[in-house]
């Protein structure tokens, strides 16, 4: 059976992609919780939605089918038993496995139609929205001033991270911070219960339950047998090892290149500093390269005794040449490598380029130095508006989860 998921590169023509249109969750962010919510500012929702619609339209205009996470999840919950099971889990993962608050939340959420319920779960539930049957100690005394029973999920529009499609399968990710951990439960229900995916032979390379942390922003599909992955603030060596074991055992993948990057908020994922945009071209934030273009990379292969062999290599160009079998690699520095422009543009996702075909990319308009440089290197650049979307600290690659790409010729 042909899997409904097929992604064998970062650059093959984009055929199907999953997005989430930012909603009310954005308006449930206020200054005291910015840090907890992993954002640095509060986008102005109507403009963020407008910008997001233009982003989606750019993808459609270039031949991609755009699916929305919220619709896929709504369809996945069409059966009442599945919907109830999902509700139990999401309420438990929000901190209420049983008791008055759990019951109040469940009754409240069940009062919506399924689509509105999904939107509500993403938006968050404030304490003053529900009435509990009896007062619990938690309600009376815990976090009294905290306004939510269920936190908003303002990062849901970064659909890159909750999961990653690799080959004909997917990783459903155990995410690092509490602010995002519930998001991958959505993916689990979509894969198991949405008709497009359920019983269609989708391999789950790694699910969200083992301990090691991993996010899709770190998972870069370089080819039909090579995966690059960041060892980062969000992805641990443990998860990478487990994923490599699973891929080596069950898929065509025979090479995992784990690249160590700084562990900080500006560079939270590999795709904030390094993205593939053509057969032999990449954008790279100069801050991750030591003199002479060196990084710390660990190349993993299956070895004959069933173990994984690991070699440490540092020359990024040489690593990529070998992995992709190319005579040369063009590394295009974000912001032209200027000491101020590079970090400024990287901060607003100047390295976070989404390839929609080989040599064709979608980027934020605000990163005009990086965009001009891409054009000088022969790349076709579609710029999208970015005043509000960028405040969530993610760019076009973060905002999209490719489900199907054409194979490279
Ligand atoms: N793939 C990415 N770079 N995603 C960016 C996600 C940004 C989001 N605020 C977070 O911290 O999780």
UniProtKB/TrEMBL annotation:
In what pathway does it function?
Amino-acid degradation; L-arginine degradation via ADI pathway; carbamoyl phosphate from L-arginine: step 1/2
* Xref: InterPro entries: Arg_deiminase
Q: Does the keyword Amino-acid biosynthesis apply?
A: no
Q: Sorted alphabetically, which keywords does the UniProt record give?
A: Arginine metabolism, Cytoplasm, Hydrolase
The answer on whether this UniProt entry bears the keyword Cytoplasm reads yes
Chemical reaction(s) catalysed: L-arginine + H2O = L-citrulline + NH4(+)
Q: What is its EC number?
A: 3.5.3.6
Q: Give the source species.
A: Limosilactobacillus caviae
Q: Name a Pfam family for this protein.
A: ADI
* Primary location group: cytoplasm
Active site: residue positions: 398 (amidino-cysteine intermediate)
Would you identify the family this protein belongs to, as annotated?
A: Belongs to the arginine deiminase family.
Name of the featured protein? Arginine deiminase
Compartments annotated for it: namely:
Cytoplasm
- First-level EC class: hydrolase
């Amino acid at each position: 059976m042909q899997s409904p998921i097929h992604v064998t590169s970062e650059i093959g023509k984009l055929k199907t992609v999953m997005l989430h249109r930012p909603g009310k969750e954005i308006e449930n962010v206020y200054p005291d919780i910015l840090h907890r919510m992993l954002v640095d500012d509060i986008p102005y929702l109507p403009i963020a939605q407008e910008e997001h619609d233009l982003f989606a339209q750019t993808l459609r205009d270039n031949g991609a089918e755009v699916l929305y996470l919220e619709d896929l999840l709504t369809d996945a919950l069409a059966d009442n038993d599945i919907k109830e099971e999902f509700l139990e889990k999401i309420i438990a993962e929000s901190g209420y496995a049983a008791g008055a608050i759990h019951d109040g939340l469940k009754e409240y959420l069940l009062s919506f139609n399924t689509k509105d319920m999904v939107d509500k779960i993403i938006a968050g539930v404030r304490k003053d929205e529900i009435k509990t049957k009896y007062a619990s100690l938690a309600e009376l005394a815990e976090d009294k001033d905290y306004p939510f029973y269920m936190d908003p999920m303002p990062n849901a529009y970064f659909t890159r991270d909750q999961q990653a499609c690799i080959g004909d399968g997917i990783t459903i990710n155990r995410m690092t911070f509490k602010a995002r951990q519930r998001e991958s439960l959505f993916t689990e229900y979509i894969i198991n219960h949405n008709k497009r995916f359920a019983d269609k032979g989708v391999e789950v390379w790694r699910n969200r339950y083992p301990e090691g942390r991993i996010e899709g922003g770190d998972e870069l599909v370089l080819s039909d047998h090579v995966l690059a992955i960041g060892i980062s603030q969000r992805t641990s060596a443990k998860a990478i090892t487990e994923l490599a074991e699973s891929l080596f055992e069950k898929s065509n993948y025979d090479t995992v290149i784990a690249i160590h990057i700084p562990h900080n908020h500006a560079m939270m994922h590999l795709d904030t500093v390094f993205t593939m945009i053509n057969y032999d071209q990449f954008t790279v934030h100069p801050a991750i390269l030591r003199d002479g273009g060196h990084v710390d990379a660990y190349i993993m292969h299956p070895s004959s005794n069933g173990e994984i062999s690991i070699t440490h290599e540092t020359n990024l160009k040489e690593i990529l040449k070998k992995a992709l079998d190319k005579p040369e690699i063009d590394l295009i520095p974000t912001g032209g490598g200027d000491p101020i422009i590079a970090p400024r543009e990287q901060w607003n996702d100047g390295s976070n380029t989404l390839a929609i075909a080989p040599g064709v990319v979608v980027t934020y308009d605000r990163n005009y130095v990086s965009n001009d440089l891409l054009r000088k290197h022969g790349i076709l650049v579609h710029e999208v508006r970015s005043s509000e979307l960028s405040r969530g600290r993610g760019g076009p690659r973060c905002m999209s989860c490719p489900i199907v790409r054409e194979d490279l010729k």
